[in-house]
């Protein structure tokens, strides 16, 4: 029975819990057992909360039993559903390391808003997942604690920075996980691990309690097996939050996915700039076949141009490090985090940061500090912000012609661990197709559309106008109703 439970997505698990076919405790124990069996090989988790999870599962079962006794059904599809959280989001009383030694002993005194909303619905916390340090990376090799391995091939990376969250879903350790996406950190690992990942519109979900990397780019989102499984968590976590100055006061959409696969009237834009020289042939083939599949369902395919796409990488790697330079200045060895005692206050700053931050974080801090320094601000950071505006205008103009944009997620499938360790630029180029959505603040959803000759997953993304998540989820759902890529299982 436990193996069958591991195949449950969020919707299927919720239905089983409501009908009494299984209990939250059974489901949670199955997930915990899978975690402990697969963890030595996958290394998706930094913290596993066995006792807390069982307590929460029992509480959920008591609530479900009480409702059933009164002839009622749970009002939330999330009641009793196990989940895991990327270790960049605060959970009260639980270590939040951000994948860094500098926060090794940091225990937040509060919940992140998104976390609190989900726990309030009765979700069951399995633990915190591994990530690239401070979300700076595309492979989860930059964690200060361990390298996460791709469940489809443990010699390959799971993507990053939400690699632990993606691997946990792919390995059936959790039916849904939280991640964050600053430049592709949900969509790219979703693609590499063969799962579905949603990056919402900037400001749609509160960033309160999300340890900041790039404050104008960070988004909280989710990874699960299907678009349908993402809906309840997305709706629950969305909404205005006065604790987050960047939270947008937009009504929370009520999403009811239609199981009709027909896409008549839907205009899908295909940007020529996303099919570039160097893209892995299998990736281009699978994505183009998926676009043809949407056409066969009735969608109109419209060639478009996002002219400034080739500027996204240099723009991002000026803006994001600049914001990181400012955000990470708070980790000074004085207020919280690692402290290395030294003879003077300045030496304490230097020694604490030198010991606490890893190589990639130091690289980006230096890049950002340089870009913000006197005499260079206008030439680098200021200029990057101007080009960012052009990138956003590309999207604004495109969405006057089309409803959604279809594109590859990454130029390649998951690469081998260590393949790009000596070349930061090659690593940065892995995000060439995901960065523009963050720079423009628009939502995107990544989902499986095939596999290469090595049986590694290939992902495609839909991007939409701001606050068009219902349309993106519906469109991805229609594709998944007409395909089975997201249902493929890992074979030993």
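-> sequence recovered:
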């Amino acid at each position: 029975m436990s193996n069958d439970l591991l195949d449950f997505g969020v919707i299927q698990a919720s239905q089983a819990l409501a009908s009494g076919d299984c209990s939250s405790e059974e489901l949670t124990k199955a997930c915990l057992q899978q975690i402990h069996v697969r963890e030595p090989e996958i290394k998706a988790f930094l913290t596993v909360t066995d006792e807390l999870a069982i307590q929460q599962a029992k509480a959920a079962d008591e609530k479900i039993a009480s409702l059933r006794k009164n002839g009622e059904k749970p009002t939330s599809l999330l009641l009793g559903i196990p989940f895991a959280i990327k270790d960049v989001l605060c959970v009260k009383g639980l270590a939040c390391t951000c994948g860094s030694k500098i926060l090794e002993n940091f225990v937040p005194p509060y919940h992140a808003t998104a976390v609190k909303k989900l726990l309030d619905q009765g979700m069951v916390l399995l633990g915190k997942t591994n990530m690239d340090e401070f979300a700076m990376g595309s492979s989860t090799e930059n964690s200060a604690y361990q390298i996460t391995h791709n469940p489809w091939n443990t010699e390959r990376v799971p993507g990053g920075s939400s690699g632990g969250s993606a691997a946990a879903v792919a390995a059936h350790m959790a039916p849904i996980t939280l991640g964050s996406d600053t430049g592709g950190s949900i969509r790219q690992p979703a693609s590499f691990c063969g799962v579905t990942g949603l990056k919402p519109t900037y400001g749609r979900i509160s960033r309160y309690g999300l340890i900041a990397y790039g404050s104008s780019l960070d988004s909280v989102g989710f990874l699960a097996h299907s678009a349908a499984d993402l809906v309840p968590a997305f709706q629950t976590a969305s909404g205005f939050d006065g604790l987050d100055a960047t939270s947008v006061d937009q009504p929370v959409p009520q999403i009811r996915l239609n199981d009709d696969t027909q896409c008549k009237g839907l205009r899908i834009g295909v940007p020529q700039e996303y099919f570039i020289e160097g893209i892995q042939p299998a990736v281009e083939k699978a994505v183009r076949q998926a676009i043809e599949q949407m056409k066969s369902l009735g969608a109109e395919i419209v060639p478009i141009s996002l002219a400034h796409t080739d500027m996204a990488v240099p723009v991002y790697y000026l803006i994001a490090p600049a914001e990181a330079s400012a955000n990470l200045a708070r980790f000074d060895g004085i207020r919280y985090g690692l402290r290395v005692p030294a003879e003077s206050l300045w030496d304490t700053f230097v020694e604490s940061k030198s010991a606490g931050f890893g190589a990639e974080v130091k690289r980006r801090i230096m890049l950002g500090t340089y870009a913000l320094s006197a005499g260079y601000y206008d030439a680098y950071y200021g200029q990057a912000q101007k080009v960012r505006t052009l990138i956003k205008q590309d999207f604004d103009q495109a969405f006057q012609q089309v409803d959604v944009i279809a594109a590859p997620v990454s130029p390649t499938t998951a690469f081998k661990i260590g393949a790009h360790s000596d070349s930061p630029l090659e690593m940065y180029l892995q995000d060439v197709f995901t960065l523009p959505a963050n720079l423009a603040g628009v939502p995107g959803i990544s989902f499986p559309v095939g596999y290469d000759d090595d049986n590694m997953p290939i992902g495609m993304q839909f991007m939409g106008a701001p606050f068009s998540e219902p349309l993106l989820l519906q469109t991805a759902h229609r594709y998944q109703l007409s395909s089975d890529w997201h249902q493929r299982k890992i074979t030993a």
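The chain has 16 helices and eleven strands.
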